[in-house]
Amino acid sequence: MSPEELRAARDTVIPDVIAGGLSVLFCGINPSLMSGATGHHFARPGNRFWPVLHLSGFTPRQLKPAEQGELLSYGLGITNVVARATARADELDAEEFREGGRLLAAKVERLRPTWLAVVGVTAYRTAFGDRRAQIGPQEHTIGATRVWALPNPSGLNAHWTAQTMAEEYGRLRVAAEGGFG
């Protein structure tokens, strides 16, 4: 992908991968320029979402970003707190996150997934006004939908390895399958 193609993707919006009644609706912070350019969620090389999804047992094999539509067959979907593509999440301001949180809550109320999994605890804190939120299941619910804050799979999040991330995502998978969260 050329630098020009990536620059042209700024502020584009990519379609959600959603349906009513999902087991888990994963929610990214916002699309990268690579995602904006390709139309696929978590498309940036180095993003660990797809490998971690497989390592945690959500998918039987590692999907490619272009195969994102297959998630629906597993009862999974993807959306974002903020819909527009940027080079970095720090280009978004707090008001954009809060507005994204309001729009996300309305989407969740309409679609009624069992779990909303926000991949990025800082984004969750800002979008939902919960400054003390930690990784894991949250007290906050949206209607009957439970909420889980997951580690951000970006390659920039060096505090988490793919394996430790997969363990946390796996805790959510167990809860989504009817275990305890």
TrEMBL record:
UniProt cross-references to InterPro entries, sorted A to Z: MUG/TDG, Uracil-DNA_glycosylase-like, Uracil-DNA_glycosylase-like_sf
Origin species: Streptomyces mauvecolor
Enzyme Commission designation: 3.2.2.28
Presence of keyword Hydrolase: yes
Domain Uracil-DNA glycosylase-like: 15-176
Enzyme class: hydrolase
Name this protein carries in UniProt: G/U mismatch-specific DNA glycosylase
Keyword rRNA processing: no
GO molecular function, one term: hydrolase activity, acting on glycosyl bonds
SUPFAM superfamilies named in the record: Uracil-DNA glycosylase-like (SSF52141)
Cross-referenced PANTHER family: G/T AND G/U MISMATCH-SPECIFIC DNA GLYCOSYLASE, G_T MISMATCH-SPECIFIC THYMINE DNA GLYCOSYLASE
UniProt superkingdom: Bacteria
Gene coding for it: mug
Any Pfam family the entry gives: UDG
Keywords from the UniProt entry: DNA damage, DNA repair, Glycosidase, Hydrolase
